[in-house]
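Hi everyone,

Forwarding the result from last night's run.
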Amino acid sequence: MQSASEQSEQPEHAYPDHWEADVVLRDGGTARIRPITADDAERLVSFYEQVSDESKYYRFFAPYPRLSAKDVHRFTHHDFVDRVGLAATVGGDFIATVRYDRINALGRPASAPADEAEVAFLVQDAHQGRGVASALLEHIAAVARERGIRRFVAEVLPANTKMIKVFTDAGYTQKRSFEDGSVRLHLDLEPTDRSLAVQRAREQRAEARSVQRLLAPGSVAVIGVSRAPGGVGRAVLRNLLDAGYTGRVHAVNSALGEGRHELEGVPAFRSVADIGEDVDLAVVAVPAERVPEAVADCGEHGVRGLVVLSAGYAESGTEGRERQRALLRQARSYGMRIIGPNAFGIINTAESVRLNASLAPQMPAAGRIGLFTQSGAIGIALLAGLHRRGAGLSSFLSAGNRADVSGNDLLQHWYDDPATDVVLLYLESIGNPRKFTRLARRTAAVKPVVVVKGARHSGSAPPGHRVPVTRIPHATVSALLRQAGVIRVDTVTELVDAGLLLADQPLPAGPRVAILGNSESLGLLTYDACLTEGLRPLRPLDLTTGATPADFRTALAAALADDACDAVVVTAIPWVGENGATESGDGEVLAAALRSAVADAPGAAKPVVVVHVEMGALAEALAEATRTRPAGRTAPPAGAPEAKQPPAPQAPVSAPQAPVSAPQAPVSAPQASAPGPQAPASAPQAPVSGPQAPTSAPPDPAAPGVPTEQGEPPAARAIPSYPAAERAVRALAESVRYAQWRRQAAADPGRVPEFDTIDETGAAGLIGRVLGEEGTDPRGVTLGVEETGELLGRYGIGVLPTLPAPTPDEAVRAATRLGFPVALKTTAPHLRHRPDLGGVRLDLATEEQLRTAYAEITETLGKPEELQPVVQAMVPRGVDTVVRAAIDPAVGAVLSFGLAGAASELLGDMSHRLVPATDRDAADLVRSIRTAPLLFGWRGSAPVDTPALEELLLRVSRLVDDHPEVVAISLEPVVVAPRGVSVLGATVRLAPPPPRTDLGPRRLPSYQ
């Protein structure tokens, strides 16, 4: 306890409402964290009365049965600078508190510049073990850093092991000592890699648990079930029952009379309060104006989560948006999470749950795909499409306006969900892009994540979705998602196509594709599609139109055993009998033959896809095999180690593999291809293994070719079929690219290098001086030429000197100073970077040439004061490129690269990576633009110094990452010569840094 001197009145600062936050706790419930104010006296007293004597003793080191009026005043009156208290609340009541008091070196109350504070917690016994103290520590530490406090001191009794664990597990740098019978802890509040890792691990566990509570409730109440047939509530109740839900079901209708009632054969009540037992999940299907009453009824009686199907919220305009805000505040005040409003519902196909709390009339088959949509209509289409093609789901959630539960929460759940092997997402908006990218990258490292993004070109989010506004093009967002390992597709059809292949087929070891079938034309169409997608097709094998299912089986078995291919595409057209009629039963027989060949294939598994033309029976037979296969996994998830898998053969070093992303044309034979600018990749490799899957894993009892305990042969894995070659090959190409990412970027993301020539402190001083100057525009300032050169120079980036040339004589003096030969350029905004307009003259070796060029430019383009000509020394010839970095409010800092001129400006041929970029990112940036061959010796030209270019990219990345005030950098042109790079022009813009949503303590976003 502090001395009485701490009560001396100090000026109170304004209430810091930005400290308020909703957090998910360890058990999946939620709590609200907010500053304690003088109005909280009664709440504090009530809270303290519910704390056990033991907890009080641990807090005050002595029996302390009740708080005095003096104590209550002290614990509720804060100045929000030197004395701060935070409370965790549920339903408006305190469940835990934390407080810090700034102290000096003697441990007495102090003010700034003292940077140490004493901290103490108290958690109600009923809520201990929920992770409340850990969440409060994150938030009070962030508050303390904001107020200039760098260290916490805490005294804890040795017996209070739970509190000691809260401190020691936080990941902060700390010291521990034992003094006067207590443990004295010193915590350095500067975030560390470990503290950030701990925070994110806790976030993942908590948010995954909160989704699991929604997906696997022990009991469900449907609120708004009409007495007469019909209506949304009645439909959901019927769907729950038809799905065979294993938990308890209750119907709620406020219009019911007194006494016992049943609707659809289940107990019906007037309210949740009347049910008389715990309810885990409530499905709300009442008009929007009655939802608050239903939410209050649920919250006051312990309901854990809500599915709000009701419409009339943010999608309906301003009034609805305010109604949605109120709904979110109300639900979170009770610790409940919301799916919706305007949601379609939630499905869990697990045999132990069988939950269909949605408007889908048919329960999907159980499978390995997790599906999330933000649109009910798209959700219906996807469910129907997946069912028609024989694919099953592990879980499904359609979030509607996603006021609370979003795709990020589902990624947290599916990341380590053993029932899900593939994640499919239909997104119309991304509320927290930084977090989404981080979660998607982590999930994609262990299982495929496929995304289709709607509302790409509308310029605004769909009605009901409030998201950060982004200034970067959609293509850039797509590139950043691909950097995170996300499989980015354009349509819901492609989403299903890719999901089918990834759910049941192993990842390919490389881009080499075998093609076989009974139609030469269809084989050639498939071959062309492979080239278009950047794959390396082998010469198609034509089995002729007379091929039998046995011939297909033999050819497929040979292809699967051939080390020269990594995947197989089977093409099939109907058999035609002698009288011109299609043979009956061919589809079923062929499907059986193909499944048999796959099941009997030795060695490393390869993906197999089927392209059929007017063979509905084949597609139905393959889909039916998927629906009827035994429960459980029939094949390892995409990328997991196959049973008894020998290492795949390696291609010789002298045969470089062309990049997957570049189309290749045959040279002298269909299987030949020319290497491109990408770094040579090893030829066929063993299928990728996820981080959680040990390479020495025992054979999977359900894997193809592994006998079961009863000696029965296992079922063959499902083979996806497609009605067009382009669709099959596009899905296969996405699988190839994803497998390559798993082998390379996910396994070894690279490192952010350290450079000895970086002066971070000097750069910070320059930035602070510029932004601190009186009269500086708060929206930001563009640095002058000298300041730009100085700032970049602090990071080892030299900019070629440029001297003004307002007259011919000044131009000559500048050239003499720099040394001939020189370049004469116009710098007027309308002529900058436009050499095609004649405003740039190069290799001026003499004074006469310089004066002549000066006269020609001014006569043709305008007066010198309009053109703003400058003189610059010549640099070695090379390839003109552009390097840019900018901070976008939605996605963060982005590093971009391309060739200068038409390639980047007209064609948009730019590559992008998130900052901080690793050495692998820099190498990929240079190689992923379509015009990259110009850097690597295209048509006999000299290759340029790409290592020097990559170092420049990394230095720019470091500058932007170290100093978020640098909101934009443009280096143009950057001439990359055979040896070295030269930066000829540079622009830097500074501004107060935008807020970061991905740093700081855990908090739920307000998707309103």
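The CA atoms of residues 844 and 850 lie 6 Å apart.

Cheers,
N.
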